[in-house]
Amino acid sequence: DLMQEVTQSSQVLDLHLQKRVCQAFLKQLEDQSIDVQGNAVKCLAKIVCRFQEQQIGEVLAKLSQLVLDGKPEVRDIYA
C-alpha cells in the first residue's frame, strides 16, 4: 500500500513524487465512500510530515475547504 511504502522508505521523496502522492490521496477525499475518505485522511496524517511546504499547504487547503463547504454529516472526518 502506498502509505506504507512512503512511511517505511528511508529515502527523501523528490518534489515530483511528493506531488503525485499528495494528489492521489487528495483525490480520494472526493470519493463517494466515507470509508475511502476516512482512510485518505488517516494516510495523509501519517505521511504529511514527509512533504515539503507546498504539498502541506495543498493538503491543508483541501481539508479546510471540505470542513467549511463539505457535507455536514462527514465534516468530522476532515477535522
Terminal CA distance: 24 Å
Averaged pLDDT: 88
Relative helix content: over 70%
Largest sheet: none
Strand content: under 5%
The number of strands is: 0
Q: Pick out the low-confidence regions.
A: none
Instruction: Please work out how many helical segments DSSP would assign.
Output: 5
Nearest-angstrom radius of gyration? 12 Å
**Quaternary structure of the protein:** single chain
Shape: globular
Order of helices and strands: HHHHH
Structural class computed from helices and strand pairing = mainly alpha
What does this molecule look like?
The chain has 79 residues and is mainly alpha-helical. The protein is built from five helices and no strands. Helix 2 (15-28) runs antiparallel to helix 3 (34-47) and helix 2 (15-28) packs parallel to helix 4 (53-69). It is globular, with a radius of gyration of 12 Å. The model has no long low-confidence stretch (mean pLDDT 88).
Topology summary:
Elements lengths: L1 H7 L6 H14 L5 H14 L5 H17 L5 H4 L1
Helix pairs in contact: 2-3, 2-4
Give short descriptive properties of this protein:
mainly alpha, 71% helix, single chain, 79 residues, globular
